[in-house]
Amino acid sequence: MNNTHQQEQTDKDPFVLSLSISTETANSKKQAEFLTEFRLHKNIQVNEETLTPILTKHLQSTNLWYKNKDVDTSNQDNYSGITGITIDYDDTIPISEFKAMFSKWHFILYPSTHHGQKDDSGKIMEKYHVIFPLDPNDYDQYLNADWHKKAYQ
User: Fold this and answer.
1) 106, 133 Cβ separation under 8 angstroms
2) What span, in angstroms and rounded, lies between the C-alpha atoms of 2 and 111?
3) What would you report as the CA-atom Rg of the chain, rounded to the nearest whole angstrom?
4) What pTM value is reported for the model?
5) Alpha helix (H) ranges present in 102-144?
6) What are phi and psi of 4, to 5 degrees?
7) H runs (alpha helix) in the chain
8) Can you tell me the distance from the alpha carbon of 28 to that of 137, in angstroms, rounded to the nearest whole number?
């Protein structure tokens, strides 16, 4: 796998990763704006082969939505829970520093599309996403949108 889309996991016991994954692929940010249909994928294997297509071609979310027919539609009215916290880091904390700070936590770190590119001043940017999965035993604590908002405060 190239440096553009590399996933990393802490060296700990396996953990459960469940994500809502878009039913269609997106080849650009513009295309991704219109993707609102997701399916829940439970117990995703945390390895490069499984995660690469999910993280590079699909939108993914730790949010869960109620089903509308056979597909989950992402909107605030359909919110039904959360399986983890996803955070974007846009050139704020170097990856090596992040790994050291959170070495005792389970997480998946993967570079964003613009990771490694130069900004207007010529500085190479570190832009990446981190997923902190929640313990499945804690899912019930985030069943309403108010708790979801608190998780991100």
Assistant:
1) yes
2) 11
3) 16
4) 0.72
5) none
6) -65, -35
7) 29-32, 48-57, 95-101, 145-151
8) 35
CA distance 107 to 95: 13
Q: 37 is in which domain, residue-wise? A: 3-151
Task: Report the candidate in 104, 83, 101, 103 with the shortest Cα–Cα distance to residue 92.
Answer: 101
Q: What angle do CA 132, 64, 25 make, to 5 degrees?
A: 85
- 3-class DSSP state for residue 57? helix
**What's at 106, amino acid-wise?**
H
Q: How far apart are CA 18 and CA 108, in angstroms?
A: 12
Per residue in 80-139, pLDDT (tens digit) is: 778 888 888 887 889 999 999 999 888 889 888 777 778 788 888 888 899 988 877 777
DSSP 8-state code for residue 135: P
Buried residues in 49-60 as b, exposed as e (16+ CB within 10 A): eebeebbeebbb
- Residues sharing a CB contact under 8 Å with residue 55, sequence separation 6 or more, in sequence order: 5, 7, 110
Number of independent structural domains in the chain: 1
**Do 38 and 83 meet the contact criterion of CB atoms below 8 Å apart?**
no
